[in-house]
Amino acid sequence: MTKLDILLEHGFEPWDIPYLDFIYKKVNEPVVTLIHWDADYYKDVDKDIVKIFENENGLVSNIVTLYTPDCRQNWFGDLNTRKFRSVFLPELLFLEVQRWVDFDNLPILTRPRIQRKFMFLNNRSTFWRKRLFQFFEDNNLLDMSYASYLNNNIRGNKEDNIEHLYKNFMEYKAYADIYPNVANFYPESEFLFDVCVETYCSEQFIGLTEKSIKPFLWGHIPLLYSAKGTYRYLEDLGFDVFRDILDLGFDNETDNTIRMWRFQQEILRLSRIDNSVYDLDMLHARFINNRNCYIKNVKKSIEALDWIDQETNFIFENKEQYLGF
């Protein structure tokens, strides 16, 4: 069963608002339930939520709840009334991947092989991705990486493009935003570290996308430039973040520039370690444990839908309390 099938089975339908294809909606008047199933977001979504509320003689007559893997409660500061609730459910982050990955028929994780040190894929152009790509160029790290920079500026900025498209490996199909399934897989497998600049890396919140959790499913070590505290957040989800292999001091830095500098220094340090140092049998066992943790979070995301149904029914049965009349 795919993610969309699961949501439809629970009575949810796409919310027909431009760019909000990652929010699904269920209405049982006066109760409106929204599920935000992707860590991606639309900065003005609160303005669209306001439009859901109906007024009867100047009183709000709808009760709206948004369930989201995004932890920014202050995102909806203007909506904080008894008629609106934003509920943080981190496991919802694992709903989307079910659309593309068949968890009943996952391939076995084989013992890792290291042909190149890093995977470093950049589809959409951003300021920090361009800065890190230039660091890889300046320090001759591209040759030890499966790397790309594709200058896709959809939702990006042209000034963050590089002069010429770059890709130093072959692949079986074209990789672009119009094929969202590819975001959950790798074009090559024989590498150790997945270097990623997250979509939300300079904001004052942790907003994970599939890029942060993908290495835990396919047996790699995540090397993430993201918001401060991302690795602790991933540990709270149950994952092994390889603190004995990575110096995660950069994850404590509040200043984005300093955090990027420390991140770059860690990449440089890792690049100088011979691959023969790594105990591949030990890593294989840890990769399997991380995959099992990933699968557990997928199951939690499905269980969360049942809990949301229960909450929705409770609100409906007690709507007078929420409406205040």
Describe what this molecule looks like in 3D.
The chain has eight helices and twelve strands. By secondary structure, it is an alpha/beta fold. The chain has two domains: 3-98 and 298-323, no CATH class; 115-277. Helix 3 (127-138) links the parallel strand 8 and strand 9 (145-152). Helix 4 (210-218) crosses helix 7. The radius of gyration is 21 Å and the shape is globular.
Structure summarized in a few sentences:
The protein has 325 residues and is of the alpha/beta class. The protein has eight helices and twelve strands.
SSE topology sketch:
Blueprint: H1 3-9, E1 13-14, E2 23-28, E3 31-36, H2 45-50, E4 55-56, E5 59-60, E6 63-68, E7 84-88, E8 116-124, H3 127-138, E9 145-152, E10 166-167, E11 191-197, H4 210-218, E12 221-225, H5 230-236, H6 256-271, H7 280-317, H8 319-323
Parallel strand pairs: 3-6, 6-7, 8-9, 8-11, 11-12
Antiparallel strand pairs: 1-2, 2-3, 4-5, 9-10
Key terms for this structure?
five-stranded mixed β-sheet; 325 residues; globular
Number of strands: 12
Question: What characterizes the major β-sheet?
Answer: 5 strands, mixed
How are helices and strands ordered from N to C? Answer: HEEEHEEEEEHEEEHEHHHH
Overall SS class: alpha/beta
Determine the oligomeric state from the structure.
Answer: single chain
- How many helical elements? 8
The average pLDDT is 86
| Strand line-up across the major sheet | 1-2-3-6-7
